[in-house]
Specification:
The complex is a heterodimer of chains A (85) and B (547).
Chain A: E1 2-7, H1 16-27, E2 32-37, E3 40-43, H2 47-52, E4 60-66, H3 70-84
Antiparallel strand pairs in A: 1-4, 2-3, 2-4
Chain B: E1 2-5, E2 7-10, E3 13-21, H1 34-63, H2 65-78, H3 81-91, H4 97-113, H5 118-122, H6 124-138, E4 151-155, H7 160-165, E5 171-176, H8 184-191, E6 196-198, E7 213-217, E8 222-225, H9 229-250, E9 257-258, E10 264-271, H10 277-282, E11 287-292, H11 294-298, H12 306-320, E12 324-328, H13 356-361, H14 363-377, E13 381-386, H15 392-411, E14 421-426, H16 429-433, H17 435-439, E15 444-447, H18 449-457, H19 475-491, E16 495-497, H20 508-513, E17 518-521, H21 526-534
Classes of the chains: A alpha+beta (85), B alpha/beta (547).
């Protein structure tokens, strides 16, 4: 399993547009991808669940990627976070 | 006569008949069995996804990438497994797919609606919009919303795809009784410049409103039903004068900015991100006078790479081509702090480690930015502007680093323009006093009036107790501005002003008189400023009044 943590910089938190970008990237990966925030975990491939976490600016999220090719997948997902959130 | 109050989405007036938009309401009914209904759902979802791809492509063309991205999000919602699970659970009750989608959409929308975050609350509408799209594919026999004559649309909320289907010429105004100012459809409405209100208290949308005559005053937030003839006459006059005023400004589109006696100035835009370039173009800006590159650093958690920067600069430069785009290099420190720069706390940040001073201490950061800028120069008319200059040695440093950037790009065979203009900001008394010497070394000046005022008057611009004394029209400031303009012109280089003072009503005649070549303001003020300049005759302006 690969994991990384990230502090949301975007003023609006994980809002609809970047959530879409992150989920779209996660869906490219066959294995499992989860996101944790404030003790709650959601499937990063499910946009409604991700948005329902209501992650605000300045909060930390932990993303866990598990499965074949997890290193490349984690890097790609992290890149989307960095560039959009 | 009945009246309601709402919040403005976009300004303007509308007088006309109401057209009620209501979402398709599905009644509970027994379906053809779970398996068959699930299959119908899957099929409609497939069609929805395809339709969203089309909407995405349309929005990309009409509105740009940022707005279009929301349709991608809607697509992910349509395909969301939680949504599918909820539909499946509903289908266990032997209902139709339409009803299952409506109920599932409502359940998930409720999750958002119950949040205490205003932005997330409005996302409930995104879920409902997706559900109603799927339902519209399940109920193909139901006729969609059609406008037959110019009308004011009244709705609880309107899915943005529905709005995009309606002929813009038939929409006089829109009232989103339940919508919010940040919803996707509100953003679209602003981009389409439709007079509109949202969040109207106490108003109930039902069919009885269809065809009722009404007045929408989006400037004040008023909605008036069945007004008396006197009121109609009054609003008709208001609407006319408002539109005439707007129309007059439109007459300045595509025109050069000239004073009454023919002196030419250019109106440029200040922007802080590559997305604002559309606004600059829409308002007929003659160039970008200040593109604040800090946003790239502020929005990132680590130093933005050369490639990332290049992409942003290129986007703006390409969109504005052949118009000039002046990009200001890194201006952080003072009130703009970034974690990963790891800057020490300072006693006196405004006089501290900032902008060019950071670049000199950490030249690799500056080199990366200059390389990205030179690469982008290949795609249009780019100019580089460096802030917070006090000494000629800083200009030497800039030129050396720029030469290194060019050498490295040349060695890698990457295309760029050799003769990119390099200018400096004049925002310290030192730079203003030495402007005759600087003028021989750089290609242009841009005066930053906020900092120039702060440093000249020794008044902290962010101290609320000094607000009264903070006077950018102080003669010490205007005299410096005059000196800078004269020195620039003696050396044959242009001088601009990129602070908010550029649109100061009192100083505008002074700026035109001393031959400021370019005034850079927020895009929305472009046409107003052009109009005001056209009313100035510099022969009537007495410099003694200003300096």
């Amino acid at each position: 399993m690969q994991q990384f943590s990230y502090v949301i910089k975007d003023k609006e938190g994980i809002h609809a547009r970047p959530a879409g970008l992150v989920v779209a990237q996660a869906k490219q990966f066959a294995g499992s991808v989860t996101i944790e925030n404030k003790g709650k975990t959601a499937d990063l491939k499910r946009i409604i669940a991700v948005m329902a976490l209501c992650v605000k600016s300045g909060e930390e999220v932990i993303v866990r990627v598990d499965g074949a090719g997890e290193e490349a997948a984690a890097a790609a997902i992290e890149k989307v976070f960095r560039e959009n959130l | 006569m009945k009246a309601y109050k709402g919040n403005r989405v976009f300004e303007g007036y509308a007088l006309g008949r109401l057209a009620v938009y209501s979402a398709i309401k599905v009644e509970k009914a027994v379906g053809l069995g779970k398996e068959k209904e699930f299959e119908r759902f899957c099929h409609a979802r497939e069609e929805t996804v395809q339709a969203l791809d089309v909407s995405y492509a349309e929005a990309l063309e009409k509105l740009g990438e940022k707005e279009a991205a929301l349709f991608e999000t809607h697509k992910l919602m349509a395909e969301d497994l939680d949504f599918e699970d909820a539909v499946n659970a509903e289908l266990d009750g032997d209902v139709t797919a339409e009803f299952a989608v409506q109920s599932a959409g409502e359940q998930l929308a409720e999750i958002f609606a119950s949040m205490d975050d205003a932005y997330m609350k409005e996302r409930a509408n995104d879920v409902r919009e997706v559900a109603s799209r799927i339902i519209s594919f399940l109920k193909k026999d139901v006729k969609g919303f059609v406008l037959e004559e110019p009308s004011i649309i009244v709705c609880d909320d309107l899915p943005s795809n529905e709005l995009m289907k309606i002929d813009r010429d038939l929409i006089l105004g829109i009232v989103f009784v339940k919508g919010g100012t940040n919803s996707h459809v509100s953003i679209l409405t602003r981009m389409l410049e439709i007079p509109s209100l949202c969040g109207v208290d106490g108003m109930v949308v039902d069919e009885s409103l269809d065809g009722v005559y009404a007045i929408l005053d989006a400037n004040k937030g008023d909605m008036i039903f069945e007004p008396e003839s006197q009121v109609v006459a009054d609003y008709t006059a208001r609407k006319r004068s408002y539109e005439e005023e707007k129309e007059k400004l439109q007459a300045f589109k595509g025109k050069p900015t000239l004073s009454r006696d023919g002196k030419k100035t250019e109106i440029y835009s200040n922007i802080a991100s590559s997305f604002e370039v559309e606004n600059a173009l829409k308002n007929d800006s003659e160039g970008i006078g200040l593109f604040r590159s800090e946003f790239l650093y502020l929005e990132s958690s680590d130093y933005p790479t050369e490639d990332e920067q290049f992409e942003h600069y290129k986007r703006v430069v390409e969109a504005m081509n052949p118009r000039q785009v002046i990009i200001r290099t890194l201006d952080i420190g003072a009130d703009k702090k970034i974690d990963y720069f790891d800057l020490p706390d300072e006693e006196n940040p405004a006089l501290g480690f900032r902008s060019i001073r950071i670049c000199q201490a950490r030249p690799h950061i500056f080199l990366t930015q200059l390389k990205a800028l030179y690469r982008a120069s290949h795609y249009g008319n780019l100019a580089i502007m460096v802030p917070m200059i006090i000494s000629l040695s800083e200009v030497d440093f800039i030129k050396r680093t720029a030469a290194q950037a060019r050498d490295e790009l040349r060695a890698s065979g990457i295309p760029f323009k050799e003769d990119v203009k390099i200018g400096i900001m004049i925002e310290t008394p030192s730079a203003a006093v030495l402007s005759d010497l600087f003028a021989e070394q750089v290609d242009f000046f841009s005066i930053g009036t906020n900092d120039l005022t702060q440093y000249t008057l020794a008044l902290d611009r962010v101290n609320p107790n000094l607000k009264e004394q903070f006077d950018p029209r102080h003669r010490s400031v205007t005299r410096l501005i005059k000196t800078v303009a004269d020195n620039a012109h003696k050396a044959g280089i242009p001088v601009g002003i990129c602070g908010e003072l550029a649109r100061d009503e009192i100083l505008l005649p002074f700026f035109v008189k001393i031959g400021i070549d370019e005034l850079s303001v927020s895009p929305a003020y472009t046409l107003q400023l052009r109009k005001r300049i056209s009313e100035i005759d510099t022969k009537d302006v007495d410099l003694k009044d200003f300096i």
